[in-house]
Amino acid sequence: MCRAVRGPGEERDGLLLQCKGAAAAAAAWWVAAWLLPSTVTAFATFTALLALQSTVYRSLWDSAQYLGAMALGTAGAAAFGSTAGVHVWSVGVLAFIALIGARFQLLGRQGAQVPVVALFAFAGGGGDIDYIGHLVAAAAIGVCCGLAAHLAVAPSPHTDTAQEMTADLTARAENLLRALARTAEQETGEESSPEYWARRSQELATRAARVRAAVDREQENTRLNPRRPWSSAEESLHRCHETISMTERLGTHIRSIARALTHAPRTPETARVLTSYAKLLHATADALQCLRPPQGPEDPDALRGHIEDAMRRYHDATAAVREDRPDTPGEWPVYGTALNEAVRILEEIEHTADRTRDGSPEPCRSE
Over the stretch 94-150, which tens digit does the pLDDT of each residue have? Predict the structure, then answer.
């Protein structure tokens, strides 16, 4: 409650949604009680709450699906009520048919309402046509009250929150790169364990999924919203998606590098190679930091310089590997994997820079 009062965000939106739900339910009950029999008044209140979802788009879509489900359910109830009448066998047959209708994909999650409405109208109202008409009217009143409350005070998009979450996600990826660089320089305790890096990579992937879901909600919130943001805000959410996708791919590359480093031999002969590789990872992390996702680089020339510096580090590390000529079985694939994955991370950074701003540095090459 305190966070909802303190400032805008998900907490305030949730509290506002509850307030709108209470107002819509009360208004639906009042209108239904004024126009319809008391036997269907509660149905209007229930439908008003169902029509209120987290976004205007979701509310409209769910309401349309619910009205479609209700149309199927009441049509079946009316058909059986006017022909077979209410019997044990007719209730069973109607339920079976309604359950088949519930699987109609266009109705989505509201398909489950088909048998509920059908049995409520048939068994509860005896299949009477007048009762079914009142039931449909109550549902229409509830939907109108719910949507009116939502449109009157539509939830505002929170693009700043989405940007902050995305920026935090890429900062975590940058920290992982620097931690890998420290591991390459000096093998230490837990960080030398493959399980440790598998866990850190999975944490990054889990966090990325959570941030993507939040950005998806914000994008949905811009659809059909009377408080629709400017196009720049929509572009910002698009850049967030690009950055999240990049971070997910970086997580795969980081895990591959960690696996290679934990299998790399630690000998005096390989110390120079690992030191050179650590400098490459630090330079790559600097390039990621300069990218400033999801906004994109403020200084494209600085990003270009960081990428060029990282490529110089790559060539230094490659030269160190060739000069030391590792002859331990399986040692060449280990270093080759680590070097290739580092270059792929640089390419991901460059690709994302292309997508988040006009113009881009020259493509990096590993040759």
Answer: 889 889 988 888 888 888 889 888 888 887 777 778 888 888 899 999 999 988 887
Instruction: From 88, 118, 152, give the residue that closes a domain.
Output: 152
Burial of 103 (0-12, 13-18, 19+ CB in 10 A): exposed
pLDDT tens digits, one per residue of 276-288: 888 999 999 999 9
- Name the domain count of the chain: 2
Q: At what angle do helices 56-83 and 194-221 cross, to 10 degrees?
A: 70
Classify 295 as helix, strand or coil: coil
Helices 10-35 and 129-152, interaxial angle, to 10°?
140
Residue entry with tokens 């509920």: 116
Task: Examine residue 112 and state whether it is found in any structural domain, yes or no.
Answer: yes
Which residue from 243, 207, 246 is spatially nearest to 344, judged by alpha carbons?
Answer: 246
| Residue spans of alpha helices (H) in the chain | 2-6, 10-35, 41-51, 56-83, 88-101, 113-119, 129-152, 159-185, 194-221, 231-263, 271-291, 300-324, 331-356
